[in-house]
Amino acid sequence: MIASDIILRFELQTDDSTDLSSSEELALLNKVYNKICSDRPWEFLKKESTGLTSTTLPYVSLPADFQYVLVNNQDTEGDNVPVVFVGTDFAPYKIISWSDRRNYRNQDGYAYIDLPNSRLVFTLQPTASKTIEFDYVSTPPTLTLSGTPLIPERFQDIIYHGMMVEDTIIQQSDKAKSYAQENQSQYKSYFDDMCYWNAKNISM
Prior knowledge:
Layout: H1 3-14, H2 22-37, E1 46-52, E2 59-61, E3 66-69, E4 73-74, E5 80-81, E6 83-86, E7 91-96, E8 110-114, E9 119-122, E10 131-138, H3 157-171, H4 174-178, H5 180-202
Parallel strand pairs: 7-8
Antiparallel strand pairs: 1-10, 2-9, 3-10, 4-5, 6-7, 6-10, 8-9
Helix pairs in contact: 1-3, 2-3, 3-5
C-alpha cells in the first residue's frame, strides 16, 4: 500500500470522527511508522555500506540514512562484534565505542562512529586507499502520500491501527475511547506477527 491508501483505511475505521487535517494525518502516519521502525533492527532496514579509505583523512562519511552499525563478525574470543571489512582480504577492523577511542589512539585495526559529524573514523590514519564495507540499520525515509512503507505489505495494516491508537489520545472523545482497546489489540497482533517474521529471517 502507499501512504494515501493507509490514511484512507484510517479514515474509514475512524468513521470520519477524527479532527485531523490531511497534513496532520500524514504526520501521524509517519510518527507511527517511525515508532515501529525504531523498535528493533528489522530485516527490511538492514543495509550494506561500501566505500574507500582516504590517505589524507582518517575517516569516511556515513550513509545519509545511517542509524547504527550491526554485529557482523566473530572476534578471537568468540564474541559477536561489529566490524568494518577493509581491503581485498576483508581484514576485520573492530568498531569500538566513541568513549573508548582514546584507548586505541594510533592503533591499527580499529574504528569508531562519530555520530555528530556523521563519520566512521579510523584510529590510525590509513596509508593506502582500500575498499571498506560494513552493515548497518537504516533510517526509513519520511513517507509522502505516494510513498510506500518498507514494512512488508501483509503487515502494513499495523500503521493505521497505530494511528487510531494515537488519534484516540488526541481526540479524547467517548466515541474514540470506546475503540481504543480494540485498536491497541489489533496493533499488537500485527506487531507480534512482524516480530515472529523478523526472528525467523534472523535465524535462517
